[in-house]
């Protein structure tokens, strides 16, 4: 059966995978080697140096391409290393139009590293795709979208942004870390590049830092491969193995993340001490219709603001949580809680942060796959 015909759950397990040539190992072995024997210069079995390619990484890259409905996957040492490669496609003088409410590390990389090299970034709200065109000029080369956004859970219409990108001949890159291909496949909606922090849901067990890019176009894949090899921030064999193992249960984990996410979101929304809950599954979420249209479910990422509270009250709540671990990151099997203003988004200036809703009392939850009753009981004792 042609692999492209397999449905998502089957591709999560089998996509791009072949039993290993040496002994038929069903899981690709961890090829912990930097180099490969040649019989005469240039004669080898497809691998010559592990920065350029490593069989365990290739197995992961093939899986990534398969689950995102792309043709080429590239695995990096971190999500930020993957973003770094995308921005290096550009030249000094080029402009990028980016989501304003995005991962703090992406913002820091754009502003504090790439602006120095003459690339400029415009950070705008993209919930209304009609207004994005106002920020495009002859220097614009790339649109950077993160959806759902972090931590405000806004949803951006990927098809509408893609139409705009095509009209102006721009590249469209989508950070698909929060949604994962279980919920949405941006390449199917017209994006050119899908990016992941595979550290999060793809790995799924909080045991690796890995990044990924997936594209359909061969020329674009070649350019990105050149940058991956030239800059060298590749994913190592052990991390490739762990990420690949994670992907094999992505669909069952995501199903439970979504179920638990709904239970926790509804509990918080009904709580008298909670002011506001941000979760795209609510009918009154401002982008609910777009979410319903482009996502298969709504995920387990939720942000909320406790009533009448400030910095200190939010800190008190996250300190009291027991089953939810107070930690950076998200997307693992275990539930995590974060305080964006002091943690993930501390590198974004306060005024900038508050403009997009990241107030001092905002708490972000990555709802894991434990028993929902236990998660609710933990929130109950912490919020009071
Ligand atoms: C974590 C994260 C990144 C950065 O990835 P690293 O693997 O930490 O380098 C980028 N985008 C989003 C949405 C993230 O959550």
Outline the structure in words:
The protein has 13 helices and 12 strands. With 384 residues, the chain is α/β, with parallel strands linked by helices. Strands 1-7-6-5-4-2-3 form a 7-stranded mixed beta sheet, with helices on both faces. α3 packs across α4. The chain is globular and about 75 Å long.
Number of strands: 12
Structural class: alpha/beta
Arithmetic mean of pLDDT: 96
**Into which percentage range does the β-strand content fall?**
5-15%
Low-confidence stretches: none
SS field, number of helical segments:
13
Order of helices and strands: HHEHEHEEHEHEEHHHEHEHEEHEH
Supply Rg: 21 Å
Tell me about the largest β-sheet. 7 strands, mixed
Strand order of the largest sheet: 1-7-6-5-4-2-3
Bound molecules: pyridoxal-5'-phosphate
Helix content: 25-40%
Distance between the termini: 55 Å
Shape: globular
């Amino acid at each position: 059966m042609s692999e492209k015909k397999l449905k998502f759950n089957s591709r999560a397990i089998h996509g791009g995978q072949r039993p290993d040539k040496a002994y038929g190992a069903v899981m690709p072995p961890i090829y912990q080697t930097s180099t490969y024997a040649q019989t005469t210069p240039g004669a080898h079995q497809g691998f010559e140096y592990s920065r350029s390619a490593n069989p365990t990484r290739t197995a992961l890259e093939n899986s990534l391409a398969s689950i995102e409905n792309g043709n080429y996957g590239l695995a990096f040492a971190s999500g930020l290393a993957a973003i770094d490669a995308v921005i290096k496609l550009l030249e000094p003088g080029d402009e990028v139009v980016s989501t304003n409410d995005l991962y703090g590390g992406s913002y820091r990389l754009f502003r504090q590293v790439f602006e120095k090299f003459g690339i400029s970034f415009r950070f705008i709200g993209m919930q209304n795709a009609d207004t994005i065109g106002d920020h495009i000029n002859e220097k614009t080369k790339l649109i950077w979208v993160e959806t759902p956004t972090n931590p405000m859970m806004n949803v951006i219409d990927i098809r509408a942004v893609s139409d705009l990108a095509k009209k102006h001949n721009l590249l469209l890159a989508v950070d698909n870390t929060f949604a994962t291909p279980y919920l949405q496949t941006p390449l199917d909606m017209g994006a050119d590049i899908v990016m992941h922090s595979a550290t999060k849901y793809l790995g799924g067990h909080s045991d690796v830092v890995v990044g990924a890019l997936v594209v359909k176009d061969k020329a674009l894949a070649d350019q990105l491969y050149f940058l991956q090899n030239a800059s060298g921030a590749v994913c190592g064999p052990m991390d490739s193995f762990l990420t690949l193992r994670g992907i094999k249960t992505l669909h069952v984990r995501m199903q439970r993340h979504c179920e638990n996410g709904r239970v926790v979101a509804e509990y918080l929304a009904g709580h008298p001490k909670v002011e506001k809950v941000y979760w795209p599954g609510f009918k009154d979420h401002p982008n609910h219709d777009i979410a319903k249209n482009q996502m298969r479910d709504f995920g387990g990422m939720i942000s909320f603001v406790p009533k009448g509270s400030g910095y200190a009250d939010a800190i008190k709540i996250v300190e009291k949580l027991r089953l939810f671990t107070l930690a950076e990151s998200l997307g693992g099997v275990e539930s995590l809680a974060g305080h964006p203003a002091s943690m993930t988004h501390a590198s974004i200036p306060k005024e900038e942060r508050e403009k997009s809703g990241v107030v001092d009392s905002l708490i972000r939850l990555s709802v894991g796959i434990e028993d929902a009753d236990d998660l609710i009981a933990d929130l109950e004792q912490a919020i009071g």
